[in-house]
Amino acid sequence: ANQFVAEFLGTPPINVFHGKIADGKLYAGEDMILEIEGAGDQEVEIGIRPEGFVLDEHGPLQCRLNRVEVMGRDISVVSSHDACENPAIRSIISAENKVDTDSDVVRFDVKPAKVLVFNKETEQRVYFQAK
Q: Phi, psi (5° rounding) for residue 51?
C-alpha cells in the first residue's frame, strides 16, 4: 500500500529507484523501463523486487556490474545505478543465464508484476497497467 511497507518486507530487500512517469512511460532515472497506462505524469519512487529483473543484453535498464554470486539454482547479480537509492542493486535470476562478467555493464528488462510505483511526496502506491 505504501513505500515504507514495501521496503520493510522481503529478503533481499526491494530495490528503490528515483524516477518519473511521463507521457505513459515509466522512467528509472533516465532509463525508460515500461510503457504504462492508468497513471498520470508525476515524480515517483520505483520499487523492483530482486526477482523482478530479467537479464537482457538489449534491456532498457542499464546498470554497472559489480559482481555475480552463485546461489545454487539462482544467481545474484550485484550492480549499481545512479537513480537507485540502494548502494547495491540485487537481482535474482536463474543460474541458466550467462552473465558476461568481463563487461562493466549489465542490462535488464523488468517483470511488470514485480514493479511497484509510489508517489514521491505521499509515498502511497500508484497503480498502473503495463502496455
A: -85, 5
